[in-house]
Amino acid sequence: MKRREAIKLTALATLGMAVTAQACPSKNSCSTDQITVGQAGIIHPSVNGHWIDFISLYVDKKLVGKTILMAEISRGAAAFRVKLDGASFITANAGCNIHGIWVSTLTL
């Protein structure tokens, strides 16, 4: 399937949040793809009073992962391993305790 090749090094930086998708090198090496939310040089503050408090990932509107982050000890990034075969899009939400929820969608 060409979709697997298309997401190998796809990156999206929207509304201050980066979403990257890294496909497995071949179908035989693993059965999931790694999705990273909150990196690519975008450093959000992580101090008491201002931090990313959660990151959630959806594949075709289905919640597939969520992480809760703590101020001062986390850097506002998370990685998820999910199956993307047959998926149309992924959506990541990141919640800043001051600025609200940021949303990025990547069409596969």
TrEMBL record:
Q: Name one GO molecular function term.
A: iron ion binding
Q: Which Gene3D superfamilies match?
A: SOR catalytic domain (2.60.40.730)
| N-terminal signal peptide | none
- What InterPro entries is this protein classified in? Desulfoferrodoxin_Fe-bd_dom, Desulfoferrodoxin_Fe-bd_dom_sf
Where does the Desulfoferrodoxin ferrous iron-binding domain lie? 32-103
Q: Provide the protein name.
A: Desulfoferrodoxin ferrous iron-binding domain-containing protein
